[in-house]
Specification:
- Helix content is 31%, strand content 18%.
- By secondary structure, it is of the alpha/beta class.
- The chain has a seven-stranded mixed beta sheet, sandwiched between helices. Strands 21-25-22-24-23-26 form a six-stranded mixed β-barrel.
- Helix 3 packs parallel to helix 20 and helix 8 (215-228) packs antiparallel against helix 11 (258-265).
- The longest helix is centred in the first third of the chain and has 19 residues, at 71-89.
- The protein binds ligand MGD (2 copies), iron/sulfur cluster and molybdenum atom.
- The site of molybdenum atom has 3 residues, from loops.
Length: 888
């Protein structure tokens, strides 16, 4: 076996270290015991990474207008197009839209090209949709975008408040580390503030199901209660802060009376009081927040309302306390360090500051420098639609799915003169609008660095050769820059050279009062860069290993050195429900999928947990609609519509709706939730209000439901709705439609069976039931089941048959017969991805076999014993909170 390659997980901002070993050709992936983020743990997504390294569907060669071309021709086309449009319409007519999934080195050169050479600041990123509210809140409070808390602080806290964070599913390893600490130290309290009762709540001592969008009232109320209760740290406030009075006044105006706050936030008064009392009485508090805070039209104020409470009590800059913005993407932080947003410069310099602009331009020795902010994501696509931006390069993000008002985004790209997309996969919803497609090297194939939530810089190391002609993103940006006439600024031979330049720029700030300092990394030799161990900044040239606790000395980044408490008068969400759209749509993530599924859905085992899109409703609301789990419903907002089966998870309050973000046109019909989301955004961060759009739910009339399992693609044009679930040797389509098709004819056409195919079928016309199977020799090629209701037999048994080269006579006979389905255990949705254990088997272990704890379930079924991501769900099932019984 070759020596292990140590690298970093390409999914979430926890930033887990990974060890890759080769067993012959096949990489084996395990958690890195030596990485400070995870100490060897991996969640279900990290553990399934080896399964995602497959070739089918990868974009392998550059394409211009659908035709494969050589790299040189593609790069010339891009450089020529950008140059022509800049010459005719000025630098503001072009833009880059990049991603927190790019490496720091990719990001650095893209930002340098746009701001220093093209000379505009039109480079924005999907971090606008993700972390920008936290960035602005940090800058308002601290004078610099610094996350002052690390994982050790989080674990040293006596009270952890999770606000708008479904940590159990979105940052599972961090969740597991908290769970382990709580088991060791039961006095550690956890409070979850989330309108949904998420799996994260299984760890909570207190769940506050706040009404969507009311967090500012809640934290203003907390600030006021801290004030009344004498919890102020008067010395800290006097010496190190400003603005406390104004913040208190705003808090008092909105939230003086706990009864009113409880009513406004939809909380029980007792629960609210308990939270306030715990916070007041506990020195070591970490308030960790994520998208329930950021993705709001008052996202920045929400974050500042949280930070105010920490500043007021002096609980910052000391071990075990502080506000912790949890980052989403693996390199959201690296992007912020290089200034890769339309509102930032580089290395924490400000676009609006003339001295900073001069300094960065001199450092880059660049012909020009952008002197005003560029367009933020939502505005940027609006400018594309209006024809003000005529060339757009999209890298590492899928905006036709992930932006709000996403049908309008599609229309914008349709009109754009030049759309360039670099991606690793061939068919994304965004690629469909590209004039030029550039094949990007994927995670396993490229070298560079990423920075995680706690400011820890880790190496991503290549362990596979890029397939076809795929190339790293930094190389593409540099090659285009050179062809635009900017040879001098972009002559890098390796990612290390880029990293060193970035570190030198981030070191040039030493002495300026800025905390971002990478001076200790600015001289790495090739060998040292290769061997770089995870390291947290600030890492100055003088103390290259010890990350100081930010703000420990009470000095903040504002010119007067003081932090600011910010007055946060609460505002309701941008759009209120009304008679036409009476409910509130909330959107977010599932445990086993990553964003638009281009990577996670390649691992068959990640597609078994929640395999198809859904609309989650409270049971009362579903009853009012007359719909049962699995029935198709349509969600309609002022901006768009979506069809999906109904789910009743039991996590929602009446009047609220939850739809996952993951499905795109590549995986289902009419399932992009982005099309429904209002484009309202926070006025200072530009971050969209993804969690609050007024919505109406209707039943979707269909006459039949069905599924097909097949080795080859199935035609979907006869369906009113469908979703594709990739498996190992096969894929499953779930579908529904209208009318009375001639099934024997249609089924053959859908499955692509030749006229002389070995074809078995069963039909009960009066019951509306049809089943068919297509064999070649003794091998099962495809099968299809149709019935009038969504509750069809579970397909697990059938799918298992696709792993066989030959079917036995019994299996062949059983194909169209419901009996084997009944005999095979229908496990229901798979809860444990590692061992494929379904909910019904777990329920049986609890009921008939008497398992009473997670450990006993693990001992009996192995569920929950490997990556541990399903433990919160096991707890929920043990407590009888198991969600809807249907397949969705
Ligand atoms: N499995 C998985 N993990 C991921 C990702 C993924 O795609 N899949 N993506 C990564 C990325 S980029 C990100 S940004 C993170 C996101 O991580 P999270 O922010 O934890 O995830 P979300 O599901 O977007 O939303 C968090 C919660 O906010 C709640 N919420 C909605 N409205 C409000 C409100 O008004 N107030 C409060 N307090 N809460 C509210 C929602 O109910 C939801 O449970 O996850 C990262 N990790
Ligand atoms: N409704 C709703 N919408 C949301 C959110 C929400 O909560 N609700 N959350 C928002 C947030 S926080 C985020 S972060 C976004 C995420 O949304 P996106 O960034 O649009 O989602 P991804 O699927 O991660 O897109 C990444 C793309 O880059 C490709 N890719 C992967 N690695 C590389 C690489 O190394 N180079 C290149 N060039 N390409 C690569 C992938 O194949 C994929 O097509 O979604 C946002 N949209
Ligand atoms: S928690 Fe999971 S997805 Fe996030 S970095 Fe760790 S292994 Fe990857
Ligand atoms: Mo994100």
């Amino acid at each position: 076996m070759t020596p292990a390659v140590r690298t970093t997980c390409p999914y979430c901002g926890v930033g887990c270290g990974i060890r890759v070993e080769f067993d012959g050709e096949r990489p084996r992936i395990a958690g890195d015991e030596a990485h400070p983020a995870n100490h060897g743990r991996l969640c279900s997504k990290g553990a399934a990474l080896a399964d995602t390294l497959t070739l089918p569907g990868r974009l392998l060669r550059p394409k211009v207008l659908g035709r494969e071309v050589a790299w040189d021709a593609a790069l010339e086309h891009v450089a020529g197009g950008f140059r022509r449009i800049i010459d005719a319409h000025g630098p503001d007519a072009v833009a880059f839209y990049v991603s927190g999934q790019l490496l720091t080195e990719d990001y650095y050169v893209a930002n340098k090209l746009m701001k220093g050479y093209i000379g505009a600041a039109n480079i924005d990123t999907n971090s606008r949709l993700c972390m920008s509210s936290a960035v602005v809140a940090h800058k308002r409070a601290f004078g610099e975008d610094v996350v002052p808390v690390g994982y050790e602080d989080l674990l040293a806290a006596d009270l952890i408040v999770l606000v708008g964070s479904n940590l159990a599913w979105c940052h599972p390893v961090l969740y597991q580390r908290i769970a382990a600490e709580k088991e060791r130290r039961p006095a550690l309290k956890v409070v979850v503030v989330d309108p949904r009762r998420t799996p994260t709540c299984e760890l909570a001592d207190l769940h506050l199901p706040v009404a969507a969008g009311t967090d500012v009232w809640l934290f203003n109320g907390l600030l006021h209660a801290l004030h009344l209760g004498g919890a102020a740290d008067a010395a800290f406030l006097a010496r190190h802060t400003a603005g406390a009075e104004q913040a208190l006044r705003a808090a008092e105006e909105s939230s003086a009376d706990p009864g009113t706050v409880a009513a406004r936030c939809g909380l029980e008064l007792d629960a609210l009081r308990r939270f306030y009392a715990w916070f007041a009485a506990t020195e070591r508090v970490v308030t960790a927040f994520s998208q329930g805070v950021n993705q709001s039209s008052s996202g920045v104020d929400k974050a500042n309302a949280v930070i105010n409470c920490h500043l007021y009590t002096g609980r910052i800059g000391r071990p075990g306390c502080g506000p912790l913005s949890i980052t989403g993407q693996p390199n959201a932080m690296g992007g912020r360090e290089v200034g890769g947003m339309a509102t930032l410069l580089a290395a924490h310099r400000e676009l609006a500051n003339e001295a900073h602009r001069r300094e960065v331009r001199a450092f880059w020795d660049s012909p020009r420098i952008a002197d005003r902010p560029g367009l933020m994501a939502v505005e940027l696509f609006e400018a594309v639609r209006a024809g003000r931006v005529r060339a757009l390069w999209i890298a590492g993000t899928n905006p036709v799915v992930s932006l709000p008002d996403a049908d309008r985004v599609r229309a914008a790209l349709e009109r754009c003169e030049l759309v360039v997309v670099s991606d690793c996969v061939e068919d994304t919803d965004t690629n469909a609008y590209a004039h030029v497609l550039l094949p990007a090297a994927a995670w396993a194939e490229k070298d560079g660095t990423v920075t995680n939530t706690e400011r820890c810089v880790s190496r991503q190391r290549r362990f596979l050769a890029p397939p076809g002609e795929a190339r790293p993103d930094w190389w593409m940006f540099c090659e285009v820059a050179k062809r635009m006439g900017f040879e001098r600024g972009f002559e890098y031979a390796s990612p290390r050279e880029i990293f060193l330049e970035h570190a030198r720029l981030a070191a040039a700030g030493a002495g300026s009062g800025r905390l971002l300092d990478l001076g200790g990394l600015a001289q790495l030799s090739e060998g040292q860069y290769q061997a770089l161990e995870p390291v947290r900044w600030p890492i100055g040239a003088a103390q290259p290993s010890a990350a100081a606790q930010p703000f420990a000395d009470g000095r903040f980044g504002h010119p007067d050195g003081r932090a600011r408490l910010v007055a946060t008068p609460p505002r309701p969400p941008a759009h209120a429900p009304d008679a036409e759209f009476p409910w509130v749509l909330n959107t977010g993530r599932l445990r086993d999928q990553w964003h638009t599924m281009t990577r996670s859905a390649r691992a068959a085992r990640l597609n078994r947990h929640l395999p198809v899109p859904f609309v989650d409703l409270a049971a009362e609301d579903a009853a009012r609609l007359g719909a049962a789990p699995g029935d198709l419903v349509t969600a309609v907002t002022r901006w768009g519509r979506l069809d999906a089966p109904l789910r009743i998870s039991g996590e929602l309050a009446p009047g609220t709706v939850f739809v996952p973000i993951h499905w795109s046109d590549a995986f289902a019909a009419q399932a992009r939730v982005g099309a429904l989301v209002s484009p309202a955004a926070d006025p200072s961060s530009g971050e969209p209000e993804f969690k609050h759009t007024p919505v109406r739910i209707e039943r979707m009339p269909v006459d039949w439901y069905g599924f097909a399992v097949s080795r080859t693609p199935v035609r979907t044009d006869a369906f009113a709705w469908w979703a594709r679930v990739p498996g190992e040797a096969q894929q499953r389509h779930e579908f529904a439609g209208r009318g009375r098709p001639d099934w024997p004819r249609l089924a053959r056409a859908l499955l692509g069976a030749p006229p002389d195919a070995d074809w078995l079928e069963y039909r009960d016309v009066s019951a509306g039931v049809y089943r068919a199977a297509h064999l070649s020799g003794d091998r099962l090629e495809a099968c299809l089941f149709v019935a009038p209701r969504p509750r069809l037999p579970a397909s697990g048994w059938l799918e298992g048959l696709f792993a066989r080269a030959e079917l036995s006579a019994d299996e062949r006979q059983g194909l169209l017969n419901a009996a084997p389905f009944r005999a095979a255990v229908d496990e229901g949705p798979v809860i444990c991805a590692c061992f494929g254990v379904g909910r019904r088997r777990i329920e049986a272990a609890i009921g008939a076999e008497g398992c009473a704890t997670v450990r006993q379930i693990g001992a009996r079924l192995k569920a929950g014993t490997q990556c541990g991501s399903c433990v919160p769900e096991l707890r929920a099932i043990l407590a009888g909170r198991a969600g809807s019984p249907a397949a969705v």
